[in-house]
Structures are given as C-alpha cells and as structure tokens.
Amino acid sequence: MTGGALISPIETARLRLREFALSDLGSMHAYARRHDVTRYLMWGPNDVQASQDQLTTFVEVQSAVPRLVYELALTLKGDERTIGALCLYLDEDEQSAELGFVLHPDFWGQGLVTEASAALATWGVDRLGLRYIWATCDTRNKASVRVLEKIGMVREAVMCGARATPDGLVDQFRYGLMKTPSP
Ligand SMILES: CC(C)(COP(=O)(O)OP(=O)(O)OC[C@H]1O[C@@H](n2cnc3c(N)ncnc32)[C@H](O)[C@@H]1OP(=O)(O)O)[C@@H](O)C(=O)NCCC(=O)NCCS
Question: pTM for this one?
Fold first, then answer.
C-alpha cells in the first residue's frame, strides 16, 4: 500500500513531473481552458472555477491512503510553470493503473509527452509495483495514439461507441503495457 506522503519529482533529460500545488492555477488553467486541448478528453474546456476545483482535488488526493491517484504537473527543467499534466489512476488492486496526459499546445510536437510518459510508466512499475498500465483514447486522437505506441503500448481493443459526446457516441481505443521492474 502506498500513500500519505508527497512523491519526489520524476526527472527526465528535459522535464520534471512533480506534485501539483494550488499556486499552479494560472499555468494549469492556460491549457485546461482551451477547446483544442480538451476536445478528446472527458472534461473541459474549463472555466476558472472548474480548474480551481480540479486543482483542489489533485492536491487533496495527494494525502490519501492508499493513494490511488497521481495527478502530476509537467514542467520544463529550470522553470516551475506547469505546461501540462500526466496522471496514473490506480485500480483497486493497486497492480494496474490508467495513464493519461495533456500538454499546452505551445509545446506540442517536441516529443515531450512521449518522454514524460515513458518515465512515468517506469516510475509506476519501479516505485508503485505496477504490473500493467492501460490507457484509452478517442480513435480520432492521432497524437495520443502515437504517444501510446511510441512508449510501447499495444492496442488491445476498439471500443465502439464507448464514449458519449455532444456529437454522439464515439469510438475509443484501449492500449495496454505489461511491465517488469527495472534491473
Ligand atoms: C496528445 C498530446 C499529449 C501529445 O503531446 P506531445 O508532447 O505533442 O506528443 P509527442 O511530441 O511526444 O508525440 C506526438 C506524436 O503525434 C504525432 N502527431 C501529432 N499530431 C498528429 C496528427 N494530427 N496526425 C498524426 N500524427 C500526429 C506527432 O508527429 C508525434 O509523432 P512522431 O514522433 O512519430 O512524429 C498532446 O497532443 C495533447 O495535449 N493533446 C490534447 C490532450 C489529449 O488529447 N490528451 C490525450 C488524451 S488520451
């Protein structure tokens, strides 16, 4: 069982993943308010109150025991501003987790979320003991599909009409990744 303490930042060559703080509201809302960012997501676009509520939840779950939710702020090294977020939502058995990610469009297409997702998946296996990581994405979300495949995830299913949107039911891919701990 994990939880009760803040995690140490996860670092890659260019990036840091760290716990959110309430002071991240401005930089978090800068991407969460955008329709181009949330088009394929289950939430948003946010008004300020919605971003405030999300951020409050992200901070509250940091102290849960067991901790099943890791919503982490993505920053460039040397700059505290949040440019996006990655998350792991553990399943009840704490052996598997859903991966998610979002990035401000100013930073799209530089391989940043691929770099951060690979690091978070490795961290989840080594630190949380995860054995299986899964993700779903809208079948139209080409960038997300690429990220998932570039980190080695395998398409396991097409879930037809799995998500209700204002435009009707849309199809979702499900991806999965079996991992073993680093040597
Ligand atoms: C998905 C997202 C996080 C990717 O972040 P990113 O840092 O730009 O991703 P990367 O640069 O690591 O990789 C993106 C890949 O998608 C490709 N790509 C981007 N847009 C594409 C498109 N319209 N069609 C095909 N491929 C596309 C890029 O070329 C790149 O692949 P490559 O390395 O083979 O060239 C970002 O686009 C985003 O925040 N989208 C909105 C939120 C979202 O949809 N989140 C995922 C929910 S499941």
Answer: 0.96
